[in-house]
Write a structure and sequence with these properties.
The complex is a heterodimer of chains A (342) and B (625). Chain A has a domain at 2-217: 3-Layer(aba) Sandwich (Rossmann fold), CATH 3.40.50. Helix content of chain A is 32%, strand content 19%. Chain A is built from 13 helices and twelve strands. In chain A, the strands form two sheets. An eight-stranded mixed sheet of chain A has the order 2-1-3-4-6-5-11-7, sandwiched between helices. A three-stranded antiparallel sheet of chain A has the order 8-9-10. In chain A, helix 2 crosses helix 7 (185-197) and helix 6 (165-171) runs antiparallel to helix 11 (281-287). Chain B has three domains: 11-229, Pyruvate-ferredoxin oxidoreductase, PFOR, domain III (Pyruvate-ferredoxin Oxidoreductase, domain 3), CATH 3.40.920; 240-426, Thiamin diphosphate (ThDP)-binding fold, Pyr/PP domains (Rossmann fold, 3-Layer(aba) Sandwich); 515-624, Rossmann fold, CATH 3.40.50. In chain B, helix 4 (118-123) links the parallel strand 6 and strand 7. Bound molecules: thiamine diphosphate, iron/sulfur cluster and magnesium ion. The site of magnesium ion has 9 residues of chain A, from helix 4.
Chain lengths: 342, 625
């Protein structure tokens, strides 16, 4: 049924066509608004149909996202969105599936589903809004909260060390891994466009400000006048360079990567960014560069490698077996074990 | 069967129960299974009971490692694999030690004499050889056969390695028992050729061992032990021997065809449910997608995602997996999406008895979720009926847009029986309709789509992603009836709770039929896999002159509409179940009747004999008081 329609031109849409009639209920000033706006403004340009677009989320502030999109959507249960999306993607490879959730949703309760969704590489775009806090439950630490953080559930300071979501995704050998932040619409849109175009599971970490429970968590690196010195923009095929004068660069060392002064090492010794490397080790090293969002931090696409997409491989198997044996007949199935007549 | 005429002394019996017992590595399940198939093809009615340990290879020769397969074959209709075996094959001392007490007095015992040496005897806890000393074997007809050495001898000119030759000793036992019961040889030889294709040495060793067993029987020593069980006068048609998990898998495929929806199975391996995953994975040519997920939560989540996309979403597991899936079942109840959750019950709690049967998850199915979250429950009653139970569960899920729990158990899953194959063209189609048009007019006069508008059965409208114009959002937060928009309104929540209960009540389920003596004072109410044992037991109770009635439930939520009337006014309601009284609790709560449980929680099904005794005791005590 869908093939006929897809051959027709996708109708022109505007931002308003992608907005649902539901009132948006995030706290005023929440970073989630700017991510929503960026995507609603972008979708008309992606050449996709609203009815073929599905947003699946877990639970959390971020996970309210589907309610605000005039597409199909499911606000499911805490942590399980990648699993539900996997079933939908396997059943319906014709759909454009987005998964949205917070750092607690995707890295704590749903961590297992996230890593396996990335490992399997089923076609979906996974957006993790990282605010380094549990927003919806009013301010407990999350698996991305920094050591020592004082929250309602860690009044004397958080003991454990945080997950680095990009490292986790690369550890799961995700085929597309990127980072952006809620203060730069254009960058967000570039990254979302890339994630959407990527065949397989795309993972995008978005630094998102929770102005109520963790205000300013990323301000040191995302505020306008800090960005040049604190954000390291990864551009495929180019030497990795940053700084207001592009005076800093990244060089590879025996143990990974480090920041160097371009004037000292020379531009030719800088690491040239290659998203497509099949070995994720260099991307992983880049993800370890900043210990937290108070040091120069890479943003952009860490990895965009070609790996077999799971849903199409699965349907190839189904079609292959069907071709080889012919379409299954129930009657033959019932007679497939030894039978006898009475 | 031609062998029969040649044999001279052949005793005819109407039924026999045989138990093959040995070490896990002895191939007893295979032996039992082969004997069963040969008997099925011979036309006997039969029922099987594989009884094996949880450990894949418990230490060889140990009591923990004993694996057994019991089969009853008969010339008439039977419902169970039988209570006590009349013939037992014991391949080693541990098998003898652990299972001898099951053999009836005077029963025939066939032992592999070669294994009764010191090391094995010690492992089994004997400080003497029971074949030579002691009184263990008194009162049995013992046939001691050096199976290992005879098998090795038979293989000696085949160039088979001695170790491989020894492994074929189960085929010696099979050959011997096949001779005793006049089973034809050819089907087994054909099967050996097929099963071990490409492994010529193994084929020749197995055949040589089988023939050696057969010849051993023919030789003078056993001349008077030959028995025949005639074919049973079963309804005419084509039969196959089927176990519950296979029948259930096929039922799911049938439901997929009847509803014209692709089948999606999300599963995570767990005994005794894994075989459904294995079986369905083989049938991709039916458009089946099987997804082995990272855990049970992902498995049910993926099944729900597939349902949401318009496929037939199914998840299979056992009790521990159900515990993990319960939050997602709650979501499916809130979303009002179809989903079939299959629980092949096993002994619990926790890991419990993974390979042993129990039916103690009924209350979990009924009440084991947070909030008011009712869902329909269907239970299979025999291995072959798992086929129809699966179709019924899918039918309810798809036509009522609800998660359904289908209960089977380890006994049904692995037990087998002959099945008169149904006419697939006679199966009723499952009509599933998805919304394609606006169904509501807004205040401003514009048409729009409301996902929670309902029909007279309170089934909501469902538009699947991809449907133009009907974009909408659903979620686990309480929603306004009709529009489906988030609503925290107190009155709306009460109404939604009521609707979710009422729409389950409005599901049509067939009335129960009272069998036996419908007006009897004593009524036995059963559910699930106890059907066979209850039916056999009641046959005996009735033939000893007592009146009893029986109803058997395949629908546990909602209950059949006539159940209340059937129970009303009866003072003597007995409920045999493989738990401590879960159905009786539900009947008491629902109908205010004095339903008394008859419990068994031993990891073993009820035998007809023990049920007969319990019911007889009750009936007799009742008439004296
Ligand atoms: C099974 C379960 N456990 C706990 C909760 C409570 N809960 C809701 S959201 C949440 C954490 C939200 O944090 P995050 O995922 O980072 O999202 P944010 O609100 O920060 O966007 C928790 C613990 C729940 N809804 N379900
Ligand atoms: S609590 Fe924080 S994350 Fe949640 S809506 Fe408010 S500002 Fe946003
Ligand atoms: Mg958060």
């Amino acid at each position: 049924m869908t093939d006929v329609m897809d051959s027709e031109a996708v109708p022109e849409t505007s931002r308003a066509d992608w907005q649902s009639d539901q009132e948006v209920r995030w706290c005023p000033g929440c970073g989630d608004y700017s991510i929503l706006t960026a995507l609603q403004l972008l979708l008309p340009d992606l050449g996709v149909r609203r009815e073929k677009t599905v947003f699946i989320s877990g639970i959390g502030c971020a996970a309210r996202f589907p309610y605000y999109m005039n597409t199909y959507g499911m606000h499911s249960i805490h942590g399980r969105a990648p699993a539900i999306a996997t079933g939908l993607a396997l059943a319906r490879p014709d759909l454009d599936i987005w998964v949205v959730g917070g750092d607690g949703d995707m890295l704590s309760i749903g961590g297992n589903h996230l890593i396996h969704a990335l490992r399997r590489n089923t076609n979906m775009n996974i957006l993790l809004f990282n605010n380094q806090i549990y927003g919806l439950t009013k301010g407990q630490f999350s698996p991305t909260s920094e050591t020592g953080k004082v929250t309602k559930s860690s009044p004397v300071g958080l003991i454990s060390e945080p997950f680095n979501p990009i490292s986790v995704a690369l550890g799961a050998e995700a085929s597309f891994v990127a980072r952006s932040h809620d203060m730069d619409r254009k960058h967000l849109q570039e990254i979302f466009t890339r994630a959407h175009a990527h065949p397989g599971a795309s993972f995008v970490e978005v630094y998102q400000n929770c102005n109520v429970f963790n205000d300013g968590a990323f301000a040191e690196i995302t505020k306008k006048d800090a960005r040049d010195d604190m954000l390291i923009n990864l551009i495929h095929g180019e030497p990795i360079q940053f700084g207001s004068e592009r005076q800093f660069g990244i060089v590879q060392t025996a143990n990974g990567v480090e920041i160097a002064n371009v004037s000292e090492v020379g531009i030719e010794s800088l690491l040239v960014h290659d998203e497509t490397r099949s070995d994720p080790s260099t991307a992983f090293a880049l993800s370890r560069l900043a210990k937290g969002p108070d040091e120069p931090t890479p943003v952009g696409v860490f990895r965009a490698a070609v790996r077999e997409e799971y849903a199409s491989a699965m349907s190839d198997q189904v079609m292959g077996v069907t071709e080889e044996r012919g379409k299954g007949e129930l009657k033959d199935l019932l007679h497939s074990l030894p039978t006898w007549e009475v | 069967m031609t062998d029969l005429e040649e044999g001279s002394k052949v005793e005819a019996v109407d039924r026999v129960i045989i138990r093959f017992a040995g070490d896990s590595g002895d191939g007893m399940q295979l032996t039992g299974d082969r004997f069963t198939t040969a008997s099925a093809v011979h036309g006997n009615d039969l029922a099987t009971f594989p009884d094996y340990p949880a450990e894949i290879r418990a230490p060889a020769g140990s009591l923990a490692g004993v694996s057994a397969f019991q089969v009853q074959i008969s010339d008439h209709d039977i419902m169970t694999p039988g209570d006590a075996p009349e013939v037992m094959v014991a391949m080693n001392p541990a098998a003898l030690k652990s299972d001898l007490h099951l053999l009836i007095p005077g029963g025939t015992l066939i032992v592999n004499q070669d294994t009764f040496e010191e090391r094995n005897l010690t492992k089994a806890g004997y400080d003497y050889n029971p074949l030579e000393e002691g009184e263990d074997l008194e009162g049995y007809r013992t046939i001691s056969v050096p199976m290992t050495s005879l098998t090795k001898e038979a293989c000696k000119d085949l160039g088979v390695k001695p170790r491989d030759a020894e492994r074929s000793k189960n085929f010696f036992a099979l050959g011997l028992v096949s001779w005793m019961y006049s089973r034809p040889t050819e089907p087994t030889f054909e099967w050996i050729d097929e099963r071990f294709a490409g492994k010529e040495q193994i084929i020749s060793a197995n055949k040589a061992a089988f023939s050696a067993g057969h010849v051993y029987g023919e030789s003078a020593e056993l001349g008077d032990q030959r028995v025949v069980v005639k074919a049973a006068p079963l309804a005419s048609g084509t039969y196959t021997n089927i176990n519950g998990n296979t029948a259930l898998s096929w039922g799911l495929i049938a439901a997929s065809q009847l509803s014209d929806l692709p089948l999606f199975l999300g599963s995570y391996p767990i005994t005794p449910a894994s075989d459904i995953l294995h079986e369905l994975a083989k049938h991709k040519a039916f458009g089946v997608t099987t997804f082995q997920a990272e855990d049970e939560i992902a498995a049910v989540g993926a099944a729900l995602g597939a349902s949401y996309g318009g496929h037939l979403g199914i998840t299979t597991t056992s009790g521990p997996g159900i515990a993990l899936k319960s939050e997602t079942m709650g979501l499916a109840i809130s979303l009002e999406l179809p989903l079939v959750v299959i629980n092949i019950q096993r002994g619990g709690p926790s890991t419990g008895l993974p390979t042993k049967t129990e039916a103690a998850d009924l209350l979990m199915a009924m009440y084991g979720r947070h909030g008011e979250s009712p869902l329909p429950i269907v239970a299979a009653q025999t291995p072959s009926e798992c086929f129809f139970a699966a179709i019924e569960a899918c039918r309810i899920a798809l036509t009522h847009r609800t998660p359904v729990m289908l209960l089977s158990d380890g006994y049904l899953a692995n037990g087998s029986e002959p099945w008169l194959l149904p006419d697939v063209d006679g199966l009723e189609p499952i009509n599933v309709e998805y919304a394609t048009e606006f169904n509501h007019i807004r205040e401003d006069g514009e048409a729009d789509y409301w996902p929670y508008l309902r029909d007279e059965k309170l089934v909501r409208s469902m538009a699947i992603p991809g449907t133009p114009d009907l974009m909408h959002r659903i979620g686990g937060i309480e929603k306004e009836d009709g529009s489906g928009n988030i609503s925290y309104d107190p009155a709306n929540h009460s109404r939604m709770v009521e609707i979710r209960a009422e729409r389950i009540k409005r599901i049509d389920v067939p009335d129960v039929e009272v069998v036996g003596d419908p007006d009897a004072e004593v009524l036995i109410v059963g559910w699930g896999s106890t059907w066979g044992s209850i039916t056999s037991a009641l046959g005996r109770v009735r033939s000893s002159g007592h009146k009893v009635a029986h109803v058997h439930l395949t629908h546990l939520n909602p209950f059949p509409k006539n159940l209340g009337d059937v129970l009303k006014g009866r003072n003597h309601i007995l409920v045999p179940e493989m738990n401590t009284g879960q159905l009786s609790l539900m009947l008491r709560a629902e109908y205010l009747v004095d339903a008394k449980p008859i419990s068994k929680v031993a990891g073993q099904p009820f035998t007809a004999g023990e049920l007969e005794q319990t019911i007889l005791n009750y009936v007799e005590e009742k008439s004296t008081t």
